[in-house]
Amino acid sequence: MRTYLPLFLASILCAGTLRGHGAAPDNGARYLAEDDFLADPAAHVIDGRVWVYTSHDRRTEVTDPTDGAHYDMRDYCALALDPRGGTVERHDAILTLDDVPWASRQLWACDALQRGDSCYLFFPARDRQGDFRIGVAVSARPEGPFAAEPEPIAGTYSIDPAVFEDPSGIYLYFGGLQGGQLQCYRDNVRLEEPRFPQPGQAALPPRVARLSDDLRSLTEAPRAVEILDERGDPLRADDPHRFFEAAWMHVRDGVYYFSYSTGGSHLICYATGDNPYGPFTYRGVILTPVVGWTTHHSIVEYGGRWWLFHHDSAPSGGVSSLRSAKVCELHYEADGSIRTIPGGRP
Length: 346
Description:
- It is a single chain.
- The chain is mainly beta.
- It has a single domain, classed as Tachylectin-2, Chain A (5 Propeller).
- Helix content is 4%, strand content 39%.
- The strands form six sheets. A five-stranded antiparallel sheet has the order 1-6-5-4-3, with no helix packed on it. Strands 7, 8, 9, 10 and 11 form a five-stranded antiparallel sheet that branches. Strands 18-22-21-20-19 form a five-stranded mixed sheet, with no helix packed on it.
- β9 and β10 form a beta hairpin.
- The protein starts with a strand and ends in a 16-residue tail after the last strand.
């Protein structure tokens, strides 16, 4: 376990680094680790503390960016912190690639959930055939270490698992385009060749399925998560606000907020609905582009305030595969809409 500098001091140190790379003025976000590259932060309140589960970027010999191969992560980390300030408690290598019997490479963005006396870590990795699947690992403690199940969850594919607990059950959201392989599936069946929709056609939607009581299997076939425009039509494939990856779900005042990354337009957007399955109606932009290509987030309530965890590549000088997790406060307007946060890209 490592304990970091108080968050406000880490923010000052990183702000100096950012100025050296010509970033836009600070938006109030604070970095969570000043000496390493932690990405894809998934935040949850567990036992009265905010726990953040991250992927771990590294300098790698893989330089080919095809299908995201240069995002060559091999382990996960867990952080315990108060987003309002104070020290960050870090736990390294809570699950590594060598710990997963079925995985061959690329431990991408994960998520976690506490249930009873156990904590469950959901994660994607490529299997021995090169297909992304979603696995689960279990620990008696939020900080791990986690023990992976011997096989991935049957019926899962693609990337970016996000788990959401609701009175009606526990749901697993997943999906990501391009390197995330969502375009390789239709109706949960692997295609012989990947197929993207054409401009003007409906965008490929993410997936959701309810989890079993033991959180090790699905109780149903994954369903499409529809994201609709104000007319009730699915967002189109050429819409800059359509889904690309990084699904997240939270509830506020009875409203279900489904948020996600748009990929090439580099936005975090959100849509709202009245149940975990949707459909969801597009509402707006949460975060404008950050330094770096990817943008991946989570949203959690703590201390009577809401917080946005995300990452950027500013401390690495804009290297998209070396990202740094950060947190800032999230604000809602009186009508329930989310106030847009500047991401900091110049």
